[in-house]
Structures are given as structure tokens and as C-alpha cells.
Specification:
9 helices, 179 residues, alpha+beta, two-stranded antiparallel ribbon
């Protein structure tokens, strides 16, 4: 593998502040997705070493460079605190588990009206409303790019547990609002 390939992939990920998918990198660089994945895995290993203050992380299907958590705690004066209601947390969990969803899909999953929760989460910058591709008026709610930065690692860990099936049923214990 040529060094230029590795540095070029590294640069493409670096310039995309919101992260980028393997498919998009493949299109930009005209390389196979398998080759891109191999390079990304090498970069992840390289940046996991203690000498680096950043890491190559994967959030959903996007790769992004971010400050390592142990360093972020040192360089960020005071993390932003958000108070989330149990119903707001439910909406975030649904979007995290199901991906981009229509209002009606979120409401069906919750079994109740969710417009107010989505509106508040949008105001907090945790959720965004996007137009579905190839449609004129269909909008989806999805987690914002700030979602993983603004929520505490404990909250993200709870969502991962739900996603992995470690928490089942209506466990309100995991849905409390301090993040």
C-alpha cells in the first residue's frame, strides 16, 4: 500500500468535520471500499497510540477524527450539561436504534405524541430535521452531528446497552435525564 494512499484517505477524513462514510471516500478517491476500509483500520490503529491526542472514531457509518476522551476532559473547561426528560431520552434512543425516522415512526415506537420532544431536542442541537432524498416533502428526524459530543459517555453507554439488547422493556432507570 502506497504511503500516498494512506495520507490521502487521512486528509479526506480530516477535512470532513462531520465525518465521512467509506462509500463517499471511495467515490472521492476512486478506490475500492475494501481498500478504503483497510486504510481506515490502519489509521485507527495508528491514532490509538498514546502519542496522539486525536483518534479516528466511527459513529454510525461515518469515520471522524475527534479528540480522545481523556484529553478532551483536560482541554475542555467544563462540559455542557443537559437535563433531558425521560420522554426526550426515549426519542433519542429510538433515533439512535432505528436511525433517521419520520415523526409518525417515532410516535409509533413510543406509543404517544413526540412532536414536542423532537422540537426541544432540535432546539438543544441533538436532533435535526432533514429532507428524505428523492422526495419533495418527506422529512426525517435524525441525530445531529453534535449528538455524540454533547451527550455524556454514560448516556451514550446506556444507548449502546439498549441497542445491544442488554436493557429490555420500559426501563425508566436508563431513561433519566442527567447527561
Amino acid at each position: 500500500m502506497k504511503e500516498i494512499d494512506i495520507s490521502t484517505v487521512e486528509a479526506v477524513v480530516f477535512i470532513k468535520s462531520q465525518g465521512i462514510s467509506i462509500k463517499d471516500i471511495s467515490k472521492i478517491l476512486d478506490m475500492t471500499e475494501e481498500k478504503i476500509l483497510g486504510i481506515l483500520l490502519l489509521l485507527q490503529k495508528k491514532y490509538s497510540e498514546a502519542e496522539h491526542g486525536v483518534e479516528l472514531a466511527k459513529n454510525e457509518d461515518r469515520f471522524i477524527f475527534q479528540i480522545k476522551p481523556e484529553i478532551k476532559r483536560l482541554v475542555t473547561p467544563k462540559p455542557r450539561k443537559l437535563e433531558l426528560t425521560a420522554s426526550q431520552f426515549e426519542v433519542l434512543a429510538i433515533l439512535y436504534l432505528n436511525g433517521p425516522s419520520r415523526l409518525s415512526e417515532v410516535e409509533k415506537s413510543r406509543g404517544r405524541n413526540s412532536y414536542t420532544q423532537l422540537l426541544r431536542l432540535k432546539e438543544l442541537g441533538l436532533v435535526k430535521k432533514v429532507k428524505k432524498a428523492n422526495t419533495k416533502s418527506l422529512f426525517l428526524y435524525t441525530l445531529s452531528d453534535n449528538f455524540f459530543e454533547w451527550l455524556s459517555q454514560d448516556t451514550i453507554k446506556k444507548l449502546e446497552e439498549i441497542k445491544d439488547g442488554k436493557i429490555t422493556g420500559n426501563s425508566t432507570e436508563s431513561g433519566t435525564g442527567k447527561t
